[in-house]
Amino acid sequence: MIAYNLGLSTITPVDIIDILLVSLLLYQLYKLIRGSVAVKTILGFSTVYLISWLADKVGMRLLGQILRQITGISAIATVVLFQYEIKKFFSTLGSLFFLSGKQLLVRIPGLKKKSDLSFNITAIVEASKILGGTNTGGLIVLSNTEDLKFYIESGDLLEALISKRLLLAIFNEESPLHDGAVIIYQAKIIAARCILPVTERQNLPAQFGLRHRAAIGMSEVTDTLVVIISEETGQISVARKGILEHNLSAQELRIAINEYLKEG
Ligand SMILES: Nc1ncnc2c1ncn2[C@@H]1O[C@H](COP(=O)(O)OP(=O)(O)OP(=O)(O)O)[C@@H](O)[C@H]1O
Questions:
Q1: How far away, in angstroms, is 210 Cα from ligand 1 center?
Q2: Best mutation site among 210, 218, 247 for ligand 1 pocket (most ligand atoms within 8 Å of CB)
Q3: Is residue 163, in this structure, part of any structural domain at all?
Q4: Does residue 89 lie within any of the structural domains?
Q5: What percent of the chain is helix, strand and coil (3-state, nearest 5)?
Q6: Where is the DAC domain (predicted)?
Q7: Which of 3-7, 71-75, 155-159 has the weakest average pLDDT?
């Protein structure tokens, strides 16, 4: 076996692969919890552990005992509290194993391949504004990194350049394509009439029906930004990482899309 002697220890190619895989895993974990409530919860758990350890050290038996009980249930609490992050982590790992070589390059940090075309943000913003103004429902999934093959296959393939007129034509109530979601991958409208996974969350306000629930569900399990135009109120919302930002102006929608594309 090939091995490199760097003085202190011998590094083999397997060690290098090992380090690369661990870095990839840690990067995925970091991406998942970055900016989410998970960070605060982890800090909370760590504080309880620390106080419990200190209480034991200085002989505060009662406090130590109570805190130990709390830390004892933290394993179960972690699974319940982080069910979204855990689900997302495994679905990301799963999709990594089923990526083609080209898609794998897109996922490796630093090697992210930018699309040759640029996302026509203005077309998406203007179409959303018009749809909202005429109380026409719309559901648009933006993906910069995942090809969303599984969801694309549930709808009708289009592979067209993004244009305001095309988006308006798709969501026109007379159109046979208006039901379900449009999926935009990199800079193209890939498919329409797609079926998205509906969130299982119970605590959503009653005003949010299936369109909003499907948007939240999709953003929970994929790295996408989902734009919703409400048929009932004409309001524009976006869902990202399971969080819904409601009643956005055209300018706010533009900012949300820009931020997503920068992140992606
Ligand atoms: N799983 C799904 N995937 C994609 N689109 C869906 C899904 N479920 C519902 N929809 C779309 O949402 C429409 C129904 O929206 P519904 O009125 O229940 O939602 P809503 O959140 O109250 O939105 P609105 O404010 O527009 O009424 C359907 O006609 C369909 O186009």
A1: 4
A2: 210
A3: yes
A4: yes
A5: 50, 15, 30
A6: 83-250
A7: 3-7
